[in-house]
UniProtKB/TrEMBL annotation:
Compartment(s) where it occurs, according to its Swiss-Prot or TrEMBL record: Cell membrane
InterPro entries: MetI-like (IPR000515), MetI-like_sf (IPR035906), Phosphate_PstA (IPR005672), Phosphate_transprt_permease (IPR051408)
Membrane topology note: Multi-pass membrane protein
The protein's name in its UniProt record: Phosphate transport system permease protein PstA
Domain ABC transmembrane type-1 as annotated: residue spans: 133-342
UniProt-listed SUPFAM superfamilies: MetI-like (SSF161098)
Keyword Cell membrane in annotation: yes
């Protein structure tokens, strides 16, 4: 008599919540064990290592449990799925470690004083980064005002008008500008204004805006170009059929249709340059005082503030390092806010399609 084999479609299955519960339990158990070992040895708990080891334990336990309950075939399927998730978690480990380190070290000085005071006449404890936050917003805002019109008009030309050698040359140079090191942009801005204004020691905020705009323009051009290209040609042809000129079609049809993607690309371009240090250190300089004038005197920015606090600590080293970590945490929060704004803009201005 033939041996009956269980039907894989009717065998027992693990509850849907079991992998998540098993993953959380593995992290908790490994975290407790690692915490006890760290406390016994006096070492600091490594969160990234806990997540990695806990995920590996989860892979093993899930395979064993699935093999006992569901059979070998489903166990292999779950093992491969968990390995894919493990690869994703490993890719996130550097980000998790970075965020954990910045939050832990930055919270002690993340207080109202940090956001309401500058470093004027501050030698040891106290002080804040108000002058750096203000400088970052002013310089990045001016860079955005320079980059968005230039980048958007360039993208419109490449998509709607550009043909022949000139369009190919523009595309080539945009690709080259995408890979330019940031310090080269700072050196260019410094050399340009030093020659034009005949001041070899020039340092001012507008020069930093020009340097950042060199890094922003290729990002804006590329993102805007891709968004303009995905606008259906049928919309353009329908507008032309009604006798609307090309420039008005671009203004009233093409740009409104792609405005969500363009706004998202611009916001991400801002997030990409707001943390640049090298060009601003060269052309904008650094100062301990407030400066609201982009066209006169040195201007501090958050990346340069973090660098100077870390690289040039005074007698009270801990106070300088706490300000540096708090500045880094502030910068990360600003970039996170910009990414959230980009998603919000994309959702609000996305074309409303009918059924």
């Amino acid at each position: 008599m033939a041996t009956a084999h269980p039907n894989s479609l009717t065998t027992a299955r693990l509850p849907r919540w079991s992998p998540w519960a098993l993953l959380a339990g593995s992290w908790v158990v490994v975290g407790v064990i690692s915490g006890l070992l760290s406390a016994a040895s006096g070492a600091e708990l490594n969160i990234a290592l806990v997540v990695l080891l806990g995920t590996v334990v989860f892979d093993v336990l899930l395979y064993v449990l699935a093999r006992l309950v569901e059979g070998s075939r489903q166990a292999v399927n779950r093992l491969v799925t968990s390995l894919v998730a493990t690869a994703f978690i490993i890719a996130l480990l550097p980000l998790i470690s970075l965020l954990w380190t910045v939050v832990v070290n930055g919270l002690p000085r993340f207080d109202p004083t940090f956001f309401s005071n500058s470093m004027r006449n501050i030698v040891g404890e106290g002080g804040g980064a108000l002058h750096a936050i203000t400088g970052t917003l002013l310089i990045t805002g001016m860079a955005t005002l320079i980059s968005v019109p230039v980048g958007l008009l360039t993208a419109i030309y490449l998509v709607e008008y550009g043909r022949g050698p000139l369009a190919r040359a523009i595309t080539f140079f945009v690709d080259v500008m995408t890979g330019i090191p940031s310090i080269v942009a700072g050196l260019f801005a410094f050399a340009f204004f030093a020659l034009v204004l005949q001041d070899p020691g020039i340092r001012f905020g507008f020069g930093g805006s020009v340097a950042l705009s060199l890094l922003m323009i290729p990002v804006v051009v590329r993102s805007s170009e891709e968004m303009l290209r995905i606008v259906p040609n049928e919309l353009r042809e329908a507008s032309y059929a009604l006798g609307v000129p090309k420039w008005l079609t671009i203004v009233r049809v093409v740009i409104p249709t792609s405005i969500a993607g363009i706004a998202t690309g611009v916001t991400l371009a801002i997030a990409r340059v707001i943390g640049e240090t090298a060009p601003l250190l060269i052309i904008a300089g650094f100062t301990a005082s407030m400066n609201y004038n982009l066209f006169a005197d040195r201007m501090m920015t958050l990346p340069v503030f973090v660098y100077t606090q870390y690289a040039n600590p005074g007698t009270n080293v801990d106070a300088y390092l706490e300000r540096a970590w708090a500045g880094a945490l502030t910068l990360i929060l600003i970039v996170m806010a910009l990414n959230l704004i980009a998603r919000l803009i994309a959702r609000i201005f996305a074309p409303k399609l009918g059924r």
